[in-house]
Amino acid sequence: MEKVPMTAGGHAALESELKQRQQVERPRIIEAISEARAHGDLSENAEYHAAKEQQALNEGRIAELEDKLSRAEIIDVGKLTGDVVKFGATVTLIDEDTEEERVWQIVGDMEADAKAGRISISSPLARALIGKKSGTSVEVVTPKGARSYEIAGVRFA
Questions:
Q1: What CATH number was assigned to the domain covering residues 4-75?
Q2: What PANTHER family does the database record attribute to this sequence (predicted)?
């Protein structure tokens, strides 16, 4: 069974989502199915079919969350140190073409959120950065083409 790396914050967020889906969404959907059933003929009951579809999606997500949480390997980023990029690192990059500065934290697949500055450990950028030191230049092949970045800083927070 393959372990799934994640930060403590990512683990807590997944646990919160699981609790929400099990304790709030599941009963709400069951109630919607019961209500729709009371309306009679199920073969032509759109509300019933929509509620059953919602139930299937919710139960699928619950199963996925339970699987990931059972295989979670929580990495305490606060205990990591050094100037080499690894899981949990917050990396400051400077685009060598535009001089634009971006800050990314390398996190697990389930907690990645590019808008919040968190990229997945399996993303092309993270894979190119892993094992590199601060001050190094890195070329990354992305869907938008090849990009060159300089690692301006590595920190663990």
A1: 1.10.287.180
A2: TRANSCRIPTION ELONGATION FACTOR GREA
